[in-house]
Amino acid sequence: MNARIAVGGRELHIDVSRPVMLALALDFAGPQPRHFGAPRARSQPFEAAGFEGSVERGASCNCELITLIPHCNGTHTECVGHLTREPLDAWRVVPAGFLPALLLSVSAEAPGAAGEGSEPAPRPNDRLITRRALERGWPASAPFEAQALLIRTLPNAADKRARDYGAATPPYLSQEAARLLVGRGILHLIVDVPSIDLGGDAVPSRPLLYRLMTPAS
After folding, report:
1. Rounded alpha-carbon distances, angstroms, from residue 139 to 36, 38, 105, 162
2. Cα dihedral across residues 177, 179, 185, 191: positive or negative
3. How far, CA to CA in Å, does 60 sit from each of 50, 52, 55, 200?
4. Which of 30, 75, 130, 131 has the fewest CB atoms lying closer than 10 Å?
5. Are 197 and 134 in contact (CB under 8 A)?
6. Nearest C-alpha neighbor of 155 from the set 113, 107, 195, 110
7. How far apart are CA 130 and CA 178, in angstroms?
């Protein structure tokens, strides 16, 4: 199924029958990605008086009880509600409809390589997704102005599908990189790392990057 859409004054042709899945499938019975020391996501038959929700065990239907922590057990979308006292669901603020998106593949850099930083300051062995790396990968010309950005960190190894990110600190954005994205009109950011800032950091640093990346509601 083909469609024509107008983006930024230009007409683009897309094949809506061939979408690309960006999320990682969460295999409850196999290896899983895991962040921040969280337990595995689990799925088990629901049990009640006289009923066990498993056809394999003789029930009339399968009925699963699923236990997971979306922030820690797989790919997910966050919004400012991740930080506020007031509940706020991501679907209420996420941009609706199609978004012109750009995919950049970047290599994280050592903290001192580009003269960029974070708050708190990066540790010697940390790796930063820098403004310099993003600018290097940003195409000089594109058929539209991107409103969403996908950052793929290199090397793009297959073990990302089941990586335990508690073993080492994953790359995160420098403050200069976050300001670049805001300056270029990015409304929705998709990354393949657990957090856009230093995992397990002091609380004051998170609001800064999230204020930069989250449109006012």
Report:
1. 34, 38, 11, 31
2. positive
3. 12, 9, 6, 45
4. 30
5. no
6. 107
7. 9
Helix (H, G, I), strand (E, B) or coil at 80: helix
Q: What is the pLDDT of residue 200?
A: 61
Composition of the chain by helix, strand, coil, percent to 5: 20, 25, 60
- Let me know: does 174 contact 129? Beta carbons within 8 Å: yes
Q: How far apart are CA 13 and CA 188, in angstroms?
A: 22
Report which of 151, 197, 147 is spatially closest to residue 171, judged by C-alpha positions: 197
For the chain, which residues score pLDDT lower than 50?
202-217
Question: What is the reported pTM?
Answer: 0.84
Structural Rg of the chain based on CA atoms: 20
